[in-house]
Amino acid sequence: MHIKKIFDMYKIAFSFELFPPKSENASRQLFATLKDLTPLQLAYVSVTYGAGGSTRELTHDLVVRIQQETDLTVVSHLTCVGSGRGEIQRVLETYRASGIENVLALRGDPPRDQATFHPATDGFSYAAEMAAFIRKQFPEMGIGVAGYPEGHPETSNRLKEMDYLKAKVDAGADYICTQMFFDNHEFYDFCERCEVAGINVPIVAGIAPVTSIGLMQRMAEVSAGTRFPARLIKSFMRADSDEHQQKVGIHWATEQVRDLIDNKVEGIHLYTLNKSNATRQIYDSLGVTSTRKISDSQL
Length: 299
Hints:
Blueprint: H1 3-9, E1 13-18, H2 24-37, E2 44-47, H3 56-69, E3 74-79, H4 85-98, E4 102-106, H5 127-137, E5 142-147, H6 158-170, E6 175-180, H7 184-196, E7 203-207, H8 213-222, H9 230-238, H10 242-262, E8 267-271, H11 277-286
Parallel strand pairs: 1-2, 1-8, 2-3, 3-4, 4-5, 5-6, 6-7, 7-8
């Protein structure tokens, strides 16, 4: 289903992010997770790359498999890292032939052995360039782009940052999905700044259930600029077992989602880390059963 129809169909579009498995056992576990999450009536799932564009081919293969073997709408991440225009064209043609209608257009982080991003030969330097290419060459494709409530780590000028985001929307983006954040005030301020900048596409809030101090530390490594509130850190420090740490993280994410629902956010994107337990507990705590506005028969 095209992303525009999804936002028309759901009062709040709940979505989950997955990453491609690297082994057959991990693949079985992932599809077990998908089976466990399907009854939650999620709007779509997205599939990411590994760091620095690694697992790119695994991502494309998984996207096609989800499309063919499930009833889920899938959004594939597509980055500028290591891919020229011809490669992007080939991937999008495969997606079109497989019935995949949506992508998330990202510049992407540089590989770990590179300090800064360098575009591939005949590649794109910015996500806005890729979005414009997709809109021109594949006008039927739904396009998402990334937003950074706490600021892009490579852009110190917060006014310029909004100019760059608006350029991505003007290039053809249908919606914005944000980087993870742990303080909803950052998200609401971001939405207001988008409004001031003349950005009026749906904005999806990215929420990550952090279930341990170790996981928080790993997230801090890969999510430059993400701030962890002192209250959350203190709560983890008070937890005297792995079980209590998990409860702390799930409770924090649940309260974030509850507040976002109360403030009528258009979408909530849960970074599941390919596990269903935390996500299901959040749903159960909130009593979320269906967020659809209309039935499939009305589309």
